[in-house]
Design brief:
CATH superfamily: Alpha/Beta hydrolase fold, catalytic domain
CATH topology: Rossmann fold
Strand content: 15-25%
Number of strands: 8
Radius of gyration: 17 Å
Order of helices and strands: EEEHEHEHEHHEHEHH
Largest sheet: 8 strands, mixed
Distance between the termini: 39 Å
Number of helices: 8
Structural class: alpha/beta
Helix content: 40-55%
CATH architecture: 3-Layer(aba) Sandwich
CATH class: Alpha Beta
């Protein structure tokens, strides 16, 4: 969940729009139209542009919808730190505005993976399938702190020193929520197809606990536990870093196509 705010890359087929929220608006980039919309949710601190390689792989008629959360890219903000629940409300507003009357395939990376997982759990009637790209999980902080609380605290301090003030406020609120012990208990998930993509790379000089051998083992364990809550799907492993969608956009596009094919076969 590294901090990075990238503006959406413009393409000939992309259409920009705004989704109004109380006190601010969210910038949305939409490409093409399709019976099932593909809605992208970025990692912490990242704007919509990080998905452009995947969108390009899917093509001009993909029905792709990417947006930047409040305070990122060209999206506005009311200046208040956002809880998980507030981000879920914004995601719901984007879906309601950009996929009226249609189900969606949700694609989320890192913190965005956590958000789409939670959205699908709370609103299964709107979701056709999930593509989780090295997702954060509700239980990861509890597991990491049990394994190495001192390292997690040091990582938090280092990250907070690097983040802009508003993102630092969001991060502080987020980890406070994730530190709740109840998060260690997995929730039942909806009966939708899921593709879960896990990074297996261990870094020689790790920046955060997740990049160490011990942290990566727990990361994979968290993903295995998450995948076990779904009735169907595929769990794929990649020898890449955390940003699978940027290192191998074709692999993410292929996973989306599998979920879309499942949706079509279900309708048939």
């Amino acid at each position: 969940m590294s901090a990075m705010a990238l503006a959406i890359a413009s393409t000939a087929m992309a259409q920009e729009a705004k989704v109004d929220r109380p006190g601010y608006s969210l910038q949305v980039a939409r490409q093409g139209d399709a019976p099932v919309a593909i809605v992208f949710e970025s990692g912490f601190g990242q704007g919509a542009g990080v998905w452009q390689g995947v969108v390009d792989e899917l093509g001009a008629t993909c029905g792709c919808v990417a947006y930047s959360r409040a305070g990122l890219g060209k999206s506005g903000t009311d200046g208040k730190p956002k809880t998980i629940e507030a981000h879920l409300q914004d995601l719901g507003a984007v879906i309601d505005a950009q996929a009226k009357g249609r189900k969606v395939v949700l694609v989320g990376h890192s913190y965005g993976g956590l958000l789409v997982t939670e959205y699908a759990r709370l609103h299964p009637e709107r979701v056709q399938g999930l593509v989780l790209v090295d997702p954060a999980t509700m239980g990861q902080r509890v597991a990491f702190k049990q394994a190495d609380a001192a390292r997690v605290a040091a990582d938090d301090k280092a990250l907070l020193s690097m983040l802009p003030p508003k993102l630092a406020e969001d991060y502080t609120l987020l980890v406070t929520q994730l530190d709740e012990p109840a998060n260690a208990t997995p929730h039942a998930q909806p009966d939708v197809p899921v593709a879960l993509l896990t990074s297996t790379q261990v870094v020689t000089e790790p920046f955060v606990f997740e990049e160490t051998a011990a942290g990566k083992a727990l990361w994979k364990q968290q993903h295995a536990q998450l995948f076990a809550t779904y009735a169907r799907g595929e769990h794929l492993y990649f020898r890449t870093g955390h940003n699978i969608h940027r290192e191998d956009p074709k692999a993410v596009a292929d996973a989306i196509r599998v979920i879309l094919a499942d949706a079509k076969s279900t309708e048939d």
